[in-house]
Amino acid sequence: MLKRNARYEIGYCCFTPQPATGSRQTEEVKKKKLEEKVEAGKMLQFKTGSLSEEEVEALLDSLPVDISFVDKDDRVKYFNKAEKRIFVRTKAVIGRKVQLCHPKKSVQIVNNIVEAFKTGKKDVAEFWISINNRLVHIRYFAVRNKKGEYLGTMEVTQDITDIQKIEGEKRLLDWES
To answer: What is the pLDDT along the chain (177 residues), one digit of tens a residue?
Structure first.
């Protein structure tokens, strides 16, 4: 049975490497440097690793989906800048009530989703619509902390037209096609 610490968590097959001489000091120095960067605000520390602000932003902007986050007070707090964004956003929406970012005819639906998320009745709402002969999948997710408290709503929008055409399997990398 593997020991429950970072060194022995999943990652080795058929053997457990022995620490190299002096590596303990090196690990402690690395950990201290990382802690200094986290304290200085240069790194975000997560339970599964750490990322710089630049890495987080690049990672989110590289996703093939549009992401928007609305906080617990119904205010738009963040959106990624995906390369092929479906619903264009400008920085002017930051801080705006989410209800003011949707057509009047859909505000009641927005309110229903947010209310169901806040009360804990629902965690996901999804829709799909056709725009310019493309099928767009729109999903809303309740974002909660470890205690289950509502922090906000994340909207994820994706053009799934080409995904729907996938058949069979593709197990080998083929950049030629």
So the answer is: 444 554 455 555 555 566 555 556 677 776 676 666 666 668 899 899 999 999 999 999 999 999 999 999 999 999 999 888 898 889 999 999 999 988 999 999 999 999 999 999 999 999 999 999 999 999 999 999 999 999 999 999 999 999 999 999 988 888 876
Domains and their CATH numbers in the chain: 24-62 (no CATH), 64-164 (3.30.450.20)
Please list, residue by residue across 154-166, b when 16 or more beta carbons sit within 10 angstroms of its beta carbon and e when fewer do.
ebbbbbeeeeeee
pTM score of the predicted model:
0.74
HEC states along 33-55?
HHHHHHHCCCEEEECCEEEEHHH
Q: How far apart are CA 74 and CA 101, in angstroms?
A: 11
Element (H, E) at 56: helix 53-62
Distance between first and last Cα of the chain:
45
